[in-house]
Amino acid sequence: MGEEMLTGGNSTTVVRVDDSVRRTVGPLTPAVHALLSRLRAEGITEVPEPRGGDEDGREVLSYIVGVVPGYPLPEWVWAETVLVAAAQLLRRIHDASTALVGEDLVWQLPTHHPVEVICHNDFARTIWCSATVGCAG
């Protein structure tokens, strides 16, 4: 399989190659990979697995199969089961992130004190995947 351009989001160019996603490395990449690795170690499989880099210097993440809603948002994003599942996933992410509090990681925004969790800061419906919030970007 060649590269398939993925659309949506407010990120750099993102492509799918087989079972992986590749995007431009930035100053946040090491922190994001540390967080994703931590979340997966805690059993949160709804986030991609970091796989390092490729020969073009891009980061490599696992591809998560699902449907990411676009605008206009479909009705399923408003279903109570979806909203509850999303809230539960966000809670699990926050709980698992506490192990990274105090680590010397570079994030996009300044740290707010007291530091209690690593905050997602963009847990929007446009980054969820379906099968009832089967993944979150």
TrEMBL record:
InterPro entries assigned to the protein according to its UniProt record, in alphabetical order? Kinase-like_dom_sf
Stated name of the protein:
Aminoglycoside phosphotransferase domain-containing protein
Q: Which organism is it from?
A: Kocuria flava
What taxonomic lineage is listed for the species of origin? Bacteria, Bacillati, Actinomycetota, Actinomycetes, Micrococcales
